[in-house]
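Here is an idea for our session: we take a single protein and study its fold together. To get us started, please write out a protein record for me. Start from the sequence, derive the backbone structure tokens from it, and show both lines together. Go ahead whenever you are ready, and we will take it from there:
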Amino acid sequence: MASAQFQVLSVLCRIVRNVVFDAVNEFSETIFVSPGALPRTVFDTYTATLVDQFNKTTLENFRTHNRFISSIVDEHLFISALRTNFYTRSVPGSNNYVTFSGIYPQNVNLTQSSFMSSETCRCDHTSNCIYPAGIYNQSKAIIPNEALSNDASLLFVVPGFQVGCVPQNASFQATLECFYNHSCLDMVITLTAALRTV
């Protein structure tokens, strides 16, 4: 799932770059004409207002773009390629398939040995369910209508990373603090390299 998070981050960076590029082009076309010389305070106030408006407009344009994409995913119930929001199972002995919603535990406390609560978040109700990302040593099958569960195969919780129904939404709720911690990055690299040899 981590590769999906990095792909999402890459796409978000490209979108932000395009939004900022468009905003800078639009801002550079702003004309300021005055019939006479302005006092420095008036000029500074005017330019500060323009810059503030530029920042707000740019941020709102990005949010609008993101809401548009999210609404398409939510309204049409697209199934994530990672099967993190919905997954389909065949009915044995038939040509029929059943689709199940992803279910994530809520109120996860990673400092306690039993960190799961009985509360869950279902991807068929909201696409904003998240769960702390981790590195696991397993390839267990998904059990229909069961919440993602903690088990002994958890090798490492990646601080600041989230997984959830939709990788984009989980990325927005992540702090990415592991990127700024050399020992955390070393641990991720070590564990993912070890899993590749299994």
Summary: Residues 2-76 form one domain.
